[in-house]
Structures are given as structure tokens and as C-alpha cells.
Design brief:
7% strand; mainly alpha; 128 residues; rod-shaped
């Protein structure tokens, strides 16, 4: 009697597995014929591209913030004083001014690239 019960359970299990696999095959064929697989592939590829763009833009904005902080740290390094020791005027040395101008140039370029990405969906100028 034990063998008969085991056979019935095993046979029933095998039939269930076969039925499930047949349903899976049918579902795959229906998905293929209705274009569902293509739609899912397109959606997945599009999501991957969107994520790349989000990552690029996020990185560029973080870099922009960092460049702005670096630019803000560049201060005049020469001071003029009056006869009482009071500061009359701050000046940049040639090297310090060049450093400031270079940082501003980098900031402006990045600003332009970020604007292109946001306004024109052109992400080519942004680094990976």
C-alpha cells in the first residue's frame, strides 16, 4: 500500500510539473507573438540608458559644487596698507589670478555641459 501511495504522489507531482512547464512554454510563445518580450527588452535598455544619464548628470553636478568651492577658496594674495596698517586694497598676484581664471573657465565649461544635458538632452559633453 505504501508503494501505491508513493507512486500516486510521484505520478501526480510529475504531471503537475509537466503541466506547469507546458504553461510556461505557452506563455513564452504568447509573449513572443504579442511583442511583450520586445517591449520588455526595449524598456530594460531604455532604463539602462536613463540610469547612465542620471549618473552622468549627478556626477557633473557634484563636480560643479566641488569646483565652486575651490573657486571660492582662491582669494587675493597681495594687500595694500595705509600708514596706520589698515588694509587699503586686496590684489591678486599674476599666478593667483591665473589660477582663479582657470578654475572659473572649468566651472563655466561644466555649467554649459550641464545646461546642454538638462535643456537639450545632450549628455555627450559629460564625463562617464
Amino acid at each position: 500500500m505504501v508503494d501505491k501511495q508513493n507512486c500516486e504522489q510521484d505520478c501526480s507531482l510529475k504531471q503537475n510539473v509537466q503541466d506547469i512547464m507546458q504553461d510556461v512554454d505557452t506563455t513564452i510563445k504568447e509573449a513572443q507573438s504579442s511583442g511583450d518580450i520586445r517591449k520588455q527588452v526595449v524598456a530594460k535598455l531604455a532604463e539602462a540608458q536613463i540610469q547612465k544619464r542620471v549618473d552622468k548628470l549627478t556626477q557633473a553636478m557634484e563636480q560643479y559644487t566641488q569646483l565652486q568651492k575651490e573657486l571660492d577658496k582662491i582669494k587675493p594674495d597681495i594687500q595694500s596698507f595705509d600708514e596706520n596698517g589698515g588694509i587699503l586694497q586686496d590684489h591678486y598676484s599674476k599666478e593667483q589670478l591665473k589660477k582663479k581664471q582657470q578654475k572659473q573657465k572649468e566651472l563655466n565649461k561644466l555649467d554649459s555641459q550641464i545646461s546642454k544635458a538638462i535643456m537639450q538632452a545632450d549628455y555627450n559633453g559629460l564625463k562617464e
